[in-house]
Design brief:
mainly alpha, two-stranded antiparallel ribbon, 11 helices, about 55% helix
Length: about 200
């Protein structure tokens, strides 16, 4: 039923004119390498349904006392059209598409809260989430670093992006301990480290 698409398009054109909205470049929609349930189109469908079903209430989320309660709060289904499509015009087998537990966990991890009690609660939720598995965390695991919870994953990703990738080895406690006592680092441009530099930084 592509009449559904036409209806949405007409609604968008009306709102775009009313609020001076600008469309996204089609090239920004990254579709390659994603499963049917992980297309940007479905992400917006899930978000729209969350808003429509009032699942995004911060007050309701803050009342949750466990990760399971948060996951149940955020669970939504899709409309009949999206049960047979993963983006407009692309038909898929009929399925009741839902956000996976992993995706729900990522939504919770990404939420920022400023109040200390809420931050502590957010940390508790993160510790209840399973660890992320990606290129960064797998790299650390190869060297024996534990990655058991989402909190560990977020810490390792932050470490990689803010220290390793920016070559701030000497400002990192791991880097410092690793380089400690060595005067030459093999595999890292054979960089020579002067012992006095450690004393200056630490």
């Amino acid at each position: 039923n592509e009449g559904y698409f036409a209806k949405l398009r007409n609604e968008y054109l009306y709102l775009a004119h009313k609020y001076s909205l600008l469309p996204l470049d089609g090239k920004q929609w990254k579709l390659m390498g994603k499963g049917c349930n992980r297309t940007p189109h479905l992400a917006f469908v899930f978000l729209a349904n969350m808003c429509y079903q009032r699942k995004t209430s911060l007050q309701d989320m803050l009342k949750c006392e466990s990760m399971k309660e948060v996951q149940n709060l955020l669970k939504v289904s899709v409309t009949p059209y999206w049960q047979t499509h993963y983006h407009f015009g692309a038909v898929s087998g009929t399925s009741t598409k839902q956000l996976s537990t992993e995706r729900l966990n990522m939504i919770v991890i990404g939420r920022e809260m400023s109040k200390e009690a809420y931050c502590d609660q957010a940390f508790d939720f993160i510790e209840q989430c399973k660890a992320e598995k990606n290129a960064i965390t797998k790299h650390w695991e190869q060297y024996g670093i534990k990655n058991e919870t989402a909190g560990d994953s977020q810490a390792l990703i932050q470490l990689q992006r803010e220290y390793c990738d920016k070559r701030k080895c000497l400002r990192c406690r791991f880097g410092y301990e690793y380089l400690r006592g060595r005067t030459k680092i093999e595999g890292y441009r054979n960089m020579v480290i002067e012992p006095d530099l450690f004393a200056e930084l630490y």
